[in-house]
Design a protein that fits this description.
Number of strands: 10
Shape: globular
Strand order of the largest sheet: 2-1-3-10-9-4-5-8-6-7
Order of helices and strands: EHEHHEHEEHHEHEHEHEEHHH
Helix content: 40-55%
Bound molecules: 3-isopropylmalic acid, manganese (II) ion
Distance between the termini: 17 Å
CATH architecture of the domain at 2-105 and 142-168 and 177-183 and 291-397: 3-Layer(aba) Sandwich
CATH superfamily of the domain at 2-105 and 142-168 and 177-183 and 291-397: Isopropylmalate Dehydrogenase
């Protein structure tokens, strides 16, 4: 029996709604397998801050650091919830954990499932099909333009009041100036880029050629940080002679990703570029309701849907829980690989199958995929499929 200590952070807006569906899935897995998830649920986020004056209870960061095998997050962020210094209330949770637990890789698959209708079509054919959208974006997660906010958030999470950044002179610019440094380090770049090549070894290559390729996305014609990132890309690339190397500037890349997603296999990029291209990339897979993610370090993993708290839909039971269900799939696969747990790996494969069959069937979908079903209808339907798959697997193994 494997018991995993799971910390659940439902957070803001639609976060708790999608986390509820994740919990149904976990219950189903516990009922049908030897896996056990010892759960600690911690209230947190911008709304929690507005109600209580704290972003999460004292000791939560330490709990995530010292007593969790994995962390599952719903969403953080609420309109008007900003700390007196202007920082995002709840930042201590999402950014404090990314920085404080050194979750340097934000792993964001962009995969279009069979049966999913996306929102862009042309007159004669669908622009994208499941056979041409299957890329993986690796977003550097602890440096870049986010660095100053990440650092303040993680200090706060550890109970240290961060000092403000010092003033700097900007020649030629008049009046008040706000600025964020964008440090990109050789070591930080090496870690994310190396991980990119490791993922490329395990994947099926780009849909267009089947060849394993890592694409470095940067703006090295303009910024020094990107020049360092690109240099490290070429250096690390030499350690992987069997894997193709490709590079693109971020502006051109956004165009190519939409026009020819089949060219791409694994993409490595810096923090802010990764944030932006994964929202854009979600359109290729049916929208933000389909975009799952993992924040990984060497010691810790935090899993979350990419969509955020969607205040407009909060409390309505309308949003798509699949991004969260797929994040749980990534979490169980990661736990399985990390702990050499064959059963967890099998369960993660069955979750993937249940989601894939659910989408092919296409009869119970939320509004974003053209349906009318509720968050909980979709969650229950996937859980029912998973439960049948787990039952039939058990029957075979007896
Ligand atoms: C994301 C979100 C976060 C980010 C916000 C909530 C700070 O947009 O996970 O992509 O910018 O990283
Ligand atoms: Mn984002």
């Amino acid at each position: 029996m494997s018991a995993y200590r799971l910390t659940i952070l439902p957070g803001d807006g639609t976060g708790p709604e999608v986390i509820k569906e994740a919990e149904k899935l976990l219950n189903c897995i516990e009922n049908h397998t030897e896996l056990v998830f010892d759960r600690t649920i911690i209230p947190c986020g911008g709304q929690h801050w507005l109600e209580t004056g704290e972003e999460w209870p004292a000791g939560s960061f330490e709990h995530c650091r010292d007593n969790s095998d994995a962390i599952l997050l719903g969403a953080i962020g609420w309109p008007g919830a900003n700390l007196p210094n202007g920082d995002l209330a709840g930042g201590q949770v999402i950014l404090g954990l990314r920085s404080g637990l050194n979750l340097y890789a934000n792993v964001r698959p962009i995969k279009l499932y069979e049966g999913v209708k996306h929102k862009i079509h042309d007159n004669f054919t669908q622009v994208w099909s499941p056979t041409n959208v299957d890329l993986l974006v690796l977003r550097e997660n602890t440096e870049g333009l986010y660095h100053s906010l990440l650092r303040r958030s993680s200090l706060r999470a550890q109970g240290i009041e961060p000092e403000e950044v010092e003033e700097m002179e900007f020649g030629g610019i008049e009046g008040e100036v706000a600025w964020d440094a964008r440090p990109i380090s050789e070591n930080g770049s090496k870690k994310i880029i190396r991980l990119g090549f490791e993922y490329a070894k395990r994947r099926n290559g780009s849909p267009s050629t089947g060849e394993s390729t890592v694409t470095c996305v940067d703006k090295s014609n303009v910024t020094r940080g990107c020049q360092l990132f690109r240099r490290v890309f070429h250096e690390v690339g030499e350690e992987y002679p069997g894997i193709g190397k490709d590079a693109a500037y971020i502006d051109a890349f956004t165009m190519w990703m939409v026009r020819n997603p089949e060219w791409f296999d694994v993409v490595v990029t810096s923090n802010m570029f990764g944030d932006i291209v994964t929202d854009l990339g979600s359109v290729l897979q049916g929208g933000m309701g389909m975009a799952a993610s993992a924040n990984l370090g060497d010691e810790h993993g935090l899993f979350e849907p990419v969509h955020g708290s969607s205040p407009k839909y909060a409390g309505k039971g309308k949003v798509n829980p699949i991004a969260t269900i797929n994040s749980v799939q990534m979490m169980i696969e990661w736990l399985g690989m990390r702990h050499d747990d064959e059963e967890a790996i099998q369960v993660s494969e069955l979750i993937e199958r249940a989601v894939s069959e659910h989408l092919q069937d296409g009869s119970i979908l939320t509004y974003d995929l053209g349906g009318k079903a509720s968050t909980s209808d979709v969650g229950s339907s996937i859980v029912e499929r998973l439960s049948k798959l787990l039952e039939s697997q058990q029957a075979h193994s007896v």
